[in-house]
Amino acid sequence: xxxxxxVLKKIEATEANLAKLDRIxxxxxxxxPSVNIGLLGGTIAGVEDEPRYQELERNFEHIRKxxxxxxxxxxxxxxxxxxxxLQNMIDLVxxxxxxxxxxxxxxxxxxxxxxxxxxxxxxVKRRDLAREFVGILSQEITAILDTxxxxxxxxxxxxxxxxxxxxxxxxxxxxxxxLLGGHLKKLPEWGDFxxxxxxxxxxxxxxxxxxxxxxxxxxxTEILYGEEDPIPIGVKDIGSLIASKPTGRIVTALKWSxxxxxxxERLIYNVIKDTxxxxxxxxxxxxxxxxxxxxxxVSRIQQDGLGGSRCLRILVQCKRVKSSxxxxxxxxxxxxxxxxxxxxxxxxxxxTTGRFTxxxxxxxxxxxxxxxxLFINMWPENHIESLLAQRPELIAEFGLR
Length: 401
What we know:
Elements: H1 4-31, H2 50-64, H3 82-95, H4 98-151, H5 163-180, H6 190-199, H7 202-224, H8 238-243, H9 261-273, E1 278-283, E2 296-304, E3 308-319, E4 324-325, H10 327-336, E5 347-352, E6 355-356, H11 358-369, E7 375-379, H12 381-389, H13 392-397
Parallel strand pairs: 3-5, 4-6, 5-7
Antiparallel strand pairs: 1-2, 2-3
Helix pairs in contact: 1-2, 1-4, 4-5, 4-7, 6-7, 10-11
């Protein structure tokens, strides 16, 4: 197995060399003549500064040879030699074909496309590397913050945070920075988070816990699990599958064992995200955070043709279990909701891969008939399966079939 730090160093060196190639290519591209031949009107031009062009061409090739392949894709040298450009322009005038001019213009600038394709593949590989490790580091930071929440309760805003735990947060944040690299540009809240970690006072902890970290958690999920990542299919032609006249019965039960706690939370996140009427969805903390009963927060807008609209604050607790949730489990989750008020929580959704015992169902029904403000909504596995039946793309994405 490769050492993670060594792999990261090689990726960073590749990114540095790619940046050099981009810089050299931009200067070369600025020196290229504009092809305007034939029916489009005739102008003939070569490279004005041939010595500089040739120097850049040699520098480009020198760096290009040091670039590793990415799944057999490599950066080819598509730069048109300086001495060929003027002669090719003259030949185009003799040919007098406008479409040939367009083709030649593309050949002159093709190198930029090759670099762009390589950078795309490199970004995908970095994200693949970061996905597992950033998730673990984020979970560890969340656990430390939750421990500190009860430990520093009542401290003054100017009091410094416990040094050992605060240094641990700082170190894990630095590791996340190293893993994400350029993807940090998509996290504008990261700068505020790092500034508050640097000062490390009571007021900084409050800002991190209430604002910085929840916002980072939500956007980090989108960075690490981009919708542009393909799902492996394993077939080149769907038509051939249909033509084979498949037989057998449809398996309707979903493979909940394919999900860990984090993936189950992400599944529910996607289900809610695509549902009309739900707004401000936030993935507020990671799995198994101690003494917390909230995984997702969302607002539901209810429209009333006579009374206008109403915004409900909803918390979603995801419980990946094999057994059924008992009354004690539900009561514990309902009690924990008080930790998150104010503002008032209007509804608690308990989403689980298991079921609810009959006693738990009766307790929830009795609770919902009372005058309490909190409504409890139960999402057992069969309800989630019904929701996913309308979203087959999620079944495929999470490998549940």
